[in-house]
Amino acid sequence: MKEFKKKIFDVLSKCVNSILAEPMIESSIRRAGVNCDKLSPGDVNRLIGEIQKSVKLFVGNPLDRKNCLRLLNQALLREEANRKIKVGKVTFEIKNESDIVRARSRGRVICQELGVRDSVGIKVATVISELARNIFRYAGEGRVEIEVLDTKPVGIQVVASDNGPGIADVNEVLSGNYRSKTGMGMGLIAVRNIMDEFEVESSPGSGTRVTVKKYMQ
Amino acid sequence: MPEETSRIPISKLHDNLIVSIQGALSDRLVAQLKDDVTDRIKNTKVFGLIIDVSGIDMMDSYITRTIRDIGLISRLMGVNTIICGMNPMIAMTLVEMGLGLKGVWPERNLEEALVKMQLWRKRSRLDARRRGRGRRSRGSK
Description:
The complex is a heterodimer. By secondary structure, chain A is of the alpha+beta class. Helices cover 56% and strands 17% of the residues of chain A.
């Protein structure tokens, strides 16, 4: 990612002394804790944030400072435009409670790396938690797959599947009349409410498979 | 499964119990919190319970329900409950999911929650005095 560094350097050297620009970038990289050879979109955001901090520290003149931040923002936007989204799939085996926490934390990190709004990240994490808990409670074990879809706008898909007892009447559960002992009896309804696409395949004895999708506008 | 021994700390400040929830919650941790809070309420003389959720990473239906339950149980035991520090993103998600914290008083942050508690406390003392006076005056007649 030499070019990216050079791009930032070009921007900075317009506003500050070029002797100062180099260490500013280096220290920002160190503080952001990113690897410059492979930057994820989330890393870029963090790095730009750190650089903005040091600009605020070193550029005294308010007009210069404003100008510099504006140029940095432009550079970031350009970077975002030609960002390549890594399409991939992660699978989590759900066997105990800590797996639920692990799966949902990972879901949130994936969203952060995609560089989407934090509210979407929280929604995805909530949905993963909800589905993983259902697996743990009712089927004992199963798996959750988190997949980044190569669509436009980019989507994230969560598939939760198990070989448990299954749901006898999916429509009844989704109608809101059903109340479970452990939750609000609304887990699946809640999931349906915050996701863009929602699908349940289940019959008694053959397990359950829930597929949800969320698109990042 | 490695046995988790961590618990959510409950601290006492003046007449209030303060529970500050930080980081990722496992189901076991929230269930433990419910037991711990009721235990503390039983064993210590407190007026209010403040649950600060500003550090929570996300809230799903189970966690929401448990926190609401803690509030309702405390009310039944005669302790006022305030929930404070709700993250806007989490609030948004909860509303869209159709979940709420009905029955628990919300406040913006810990500071305002403490002020509110003080106000309630003052009012309840006043009420008690007024009631006491009324009884005495009836008694003298």
